[in-house]
Amino acid sequence: MKSLDKEEQKSKKNGKETKQSPVFTGNFESDLKKVKDLLGENSDILFRKFRLNNTKLKAALFYLDGLSDKELIDKFLLSSLMKPFSETDKEQIKQDGLKDFLKNNVLSIGEIKESDEPEKAVIEILNGSAALIIESVPEVLVLGIKKPKTRDLQEPISEPLVRGPRIGFTENIKDNTAILRNQGQNEDLFFLKKSVGERAKKQTVIAYINGIANQDLVDEIVRRIDKIKIDFLPESGYIEQLIEDNFLSPFPQIQSTERPDRVMGALMEGRVAILLDGTPYVLIAPVTLSMLLQSPEDYYERWIPATLVRLLRFLAAFITLYGPSLYISFISFHPGLIPTKLAISIAGSREGVPFPTLLEAMLMEIAIEILREAGLRLPKPIGPAIGIVGGLIIGEAAVSAGIVSRIMVIVVALTAISSFAMPQYSLGTSLRILRFISMLAASIYGLYGVVLFTLLFLSHLVRLYSFGVPYISPWTPLRMKDLKDFIVRGPMFLMKSRPVLLQTKEPRRKG
Q1: Which UniProt keywords apply (predicted)?
Q2: Rounded mean pLDDT, 82-110
């Protein structure tokens, strides 16, 4: 064996000598020290040193307590490695080499990889794999024995349905890819793995249907994920913020969901999904505004009731955005547009209220937002009760004290209920933010301010894109084929084409 240490090899690049990163050499004590130095004094890293079978060769096994399958290691892996070689085995070792013999005849592990770099081996150990160091072998065998702690499959909390599958994603990315595979046998469902994070690396998977998804879209998403430079990604929301088109927009440009059926439906349309280990929320790109107002349940019901429910959602979005601002503009600037009897009733209810309409509306809206946030943060058994009781008490107390009018309580309550009708929580949050801006515009110019706000609002939507797809398509540009699944959900037999703006490889659906 040559005594030349690979670690001391040098390569010339751009006329300068650069030292190579440390590598394994086959020197047992040296390789062992490299791994131990990188791992440091970690109490959850377990180390087992032993003699390989009945030979004098030394071997060591590194694995992580809590993530690695200790039962598999104790009962099968170590017993196989310490079992004496027969004469036939020794002859086979001379022919194939020790490393290949162990891989093909001894190690009954489905996933075996080789690594000659200590840093990569340590990353695999910290991810739950085991690393086997063998004397005279210049590579480490990485054994896939990860057994992470996972929770049972449950119904998605943030996207409940009356009719539909009762299964949601979990925090384990392998479970999530298996769930997508289980949606139906599809040999064209591709998973592209990436590692993200500079200090704590996590696995992300880019999922798409080969033969449907536009390859330029897949390449663009891969490019943006490759450009992510951050210490740690605890949740997919980090990826969403780092790869979106316009960070100044209040609207989400990537859809997040816990529902596998929603993800599979998007993949079949030609979209791309992004999964991150450690979170049940999967990202879908590109997204349009109409997608955020749709629910998977729209396709599980007949087209007439599904269309009615979808129309109600669009109406709820309008009320969420414009309810208080229209009230402010009518009361403060255009009372003549209100029917006489209604105007008298409103004036009577506002008698004695010391605040202008804008301040009155702001006080109630802020109170509702605080109650909503408090209901989310409190423990589940008392959170909903506090939200309901708090709203009733504050509303009644404010009216009794003459701080706000009864009609204002009705307007704010209707607006809050409408915001709860949004299928996507992120869209409801965006509309709530814009609602305050529309209220300010209405308090300054009345209906003219509302119209001006609407023009600015629509101009922003027209200029907003999600991975090259117009955000308000199929309105702009107008695509008649895509209108069958826009506000009206057309009958199933008419929905033969995939969205035109996605420029899929296969524009028409099969069947």
Answers
A1: Membrane, Transmembrane, Transmembrane helix
A2: 82
At residue 192, the 3 state secondary structure works out as: strand
Global confidence as pTM: 0.82
Alpha-carbon torsion, ordered 316, 321, 322, 325, to 10 deg? 140
DSSP per-residue string spanning 132-187: EEETT-SSEEEE--B----PPP---SSS--SSS------S-HHHHHHHHHTT---T
β partners of residue 10 = 19
User: What average pLDDT does the chain have?
Assistant: 86
Whole-number Å distance between alpha carbons of 506 and 503: 8
Dihedral sign (CA 169, 171, 175, 178): positive
Residue 285: name the closest of 228, 219, 226 by CA.
219
Domain ranges (residues) in the chain: 6-143, 173-287, 299-470
| 112, 140 contact by CB (below 8 A) | no
* Amino acid residing at 480: M
Q: Output DSSP code: residue 189.
A: E
- Helix (H) or strand (E) holding 63, with range, is strand 58-64
Q: Which residues, other chains included, contact 289 with Cβ-Cβ below 8 Å and sequence gap of 6+?
A: 251, 461, 471, 472
**Interval 200-256: pLDDT, tens:** 888 999 999 998 999 999 999 999 999 999 999 999 999 999 999 999 999 999 999
Query: Is residue 386 pLDDT above 90, yes or no?
Result: no
CA distance 469 to 457: 18
Calculate Rg over the CA atoms of the chain: 31
CA atoms of 331 and 260, how far apart (whole Å): 47
Between CA 60 and CA 217 the distance in angstroms is: 45
What lies within 8 Å, CB to CB, of 389 at 6+ separation is: none
Residues 502/288, Cβ–Cβ less than 8 Å:
no
* Separation between Cα atoms, residue 244 and residue 236, nearest integer Å: 12
| CA angle, 456 then 460 then 461, to 5° | 120
